[in-house]
């Protein structure tokens, strides 16, 4: 469980860093799109909320399934022992698009999505209790792009994903037409 708590602490730091970055943007800045096919800051935040909830739910559900003897994944855990960075490098292509289920579609202001992202933290912190007594390497569920990940890899992904989108948000702010306050 120590490794899981470390992954959660890393994700917490990444969440804090991202929220520190976005809290200063005006509604106009948060809605700005550098190109029609690129996400705004608010859309990045919405995606992060939905994707993180999906990640936590997958691990939670997989843990419950292991407990009742019906594991979600029974195939070969092809990524066993790999870091999330290695997995992404092996399985994602340049310009990888988010799975349909995690694409922004609801809309709304960045201020809403910032609060929603903060609300994901208690869900993340509740996960170790759901995994108590289980080997996190046995709690395996597939990612829609990369295939089977274990619980520790999923939690590492939360941090990785927050950092990835913080970088994308920073890129939005460097666009020539980005509104200056």
Question: Would you kindly provide a written description of the structure presented here, covering whatever features stand out?
Answer:
Helix content is 59%, strand content 4%. It is mainly alpha-helical. The protein has a single domain (2-173), classed as Four Helix Bundle (Hemerythrin (Met), subunit A). The chain has a two-stranded antiparallel ribbon. Helix 1 (2-22) runs parallel beside helix 6 and helix 3 (41-67) runs parallel beside helix 5. The longest helix has 27 residues, at 41-67. The N and C termini lie far apart (45 Å). The model has no long low-confidence stretch (mean pLDDT 96).
Structural key phrases:
Four Helix Bundle (Hemerythrin (Met), subunit A), 6 helices, two-stranded antiparallel ribbon, 181 residues
